[in-house]
Design goal:
- Keywords: Cytoplasm, Endosome, Membrane, Protein transport, Transport.
- It is a peripheral membrane protein.
- Pfam families: Vta1, Vta1_C.
- InterPro entries: Vta1-like, Vta1/CALS_N, Vta1/CALS_N_sf, Vta1_C.
- The protein is mostly helical.
- The protein has three domains: 67 residues, Serine Threonine Protein Phosphatase 5, Tetratricopeptide repeat; 70 residues, Vacuolar protein sorting-associated protein vta1 (Serine Threonine Protein Phosphatase 5, Tetratricopeptide repeat, Alpha Horseshoe); 86 residues, Immunoglobulin FC, subunit C (Single alpha-helices involved in coiled-coils or other helix-helix interfaces, Up-down Bundle).
- Helices cover 65% and strands 0% of the residues.
- The longest helix has 24 residues.
């Protein structure tokens, strides 16, 4: 697969994994990958070939996907993601902090991302609700934490207490507004608020909007999560997106 198409790989993989278990969710994973690929400028021949094959696959699997209206299907995919998240969270809190639980969190974060394809206007991706954005941030962060611990041969630290704000807990555990800092989540505690305020003030001073800083933090966190699964192409893609938001230029290439 060409470098240009590698950011689509996590969604294509989920489509293949879920085809038998849930054809509808598999369809929307592939559809999201297809739409993301269509947005790519200066498409390479490899990307064009991939998109052509993907369109054919979507047409082939559409009859068995059980598609309904956009609202019904969005609710269906969201419910699937929430069930994945709940299962992973239950295993995590029950002490099963292994590679399987990490994978469940990771897949939940990917499926939540596909919700951005619904209710698209003027070519812009749909914004996630605050609840789903918070769960996506937490799932990506927790997947990375569990995968890293598993790779190092140790047991991961317990998850934050239930009821604690997921976005804020992920940010605090990884040091506030660093690579795992969420964008748009509610802050918990005075220290978090102070960090957020300082970051926002500095962002305006540097000519970067607070919204861009929040989005850059989100992509940096996704990069950390992807590295937990040795998914280097996805990590590089998200780091490039973070750099582009902060500097206006793409800064990394895959080695």
């Amino acid at each position: 697969m060409g470098e240009q198409a590698k950011p689509l790989l996590p969604f294509l993989q989920r489509g293949d994994e879920l085809q038998r278990a849930d054809p509808k969710v598999a369809y929307y994973c592939r559809m999201f990958a297809c739409e993301e690929g269509m947005r790519t400028s200066d498409k390479t021949p490899e990307m064009r070939e991939l998109l052509s094959l993907l369109v054919l696959q979507l047409e082939k699997t559409k009859p068995s996907a059980g598609l309904q209206g956009a609202e019904e299907d969005e609710a269906y995919v969201e419910n699937f993601a929430l069930r994945l998240f709940a299962k992973a969270d239950k295993l995590d809190r029950g002490g099963r902090r292994d590679a399987k639980t990490a994978k469940l969190f990771y897949v939940a974060s990917i499926v939540i991302e596909t919700l951005r394809q619904f209710d698209v206007s003027n070519g812009a991706k749909h914004e996630l609700s605050d609840e789903m954005a918070g769960k996506q941030r937490y799932a990506a962060w927790r997947a990375g934490e569990l995968a890293k611990a598993n790779r190092e041969g140790r047991t991961a630290a317990p998850p934050p207490e239930e009821g604690e704000d997921e976005s804020a807990s992920a940010a605090r555990t990884t040091g506030g507004g660093g690579t795992a800092g969420g964008g748009g989540g509610t802050a918990g505690g005075g220290g978090e608020e102070a960090t957020t305020t300082t970051t926002t003030t500095q962002a305006f001073a540097d000519g970067v909007s607070a919204a861009h800083v929040a989005d850059a933090q989100k992509h940096a966190k996704y990069a950390v999560s992807a590295l937990g699964f040795e998914d280097v192409p996805t990590a590089i893609d998200n780091l490039n997106k973070a750099l582009a938001l902060l500097t206006g230029v793409r800064g990394l290439r895959e080695p």
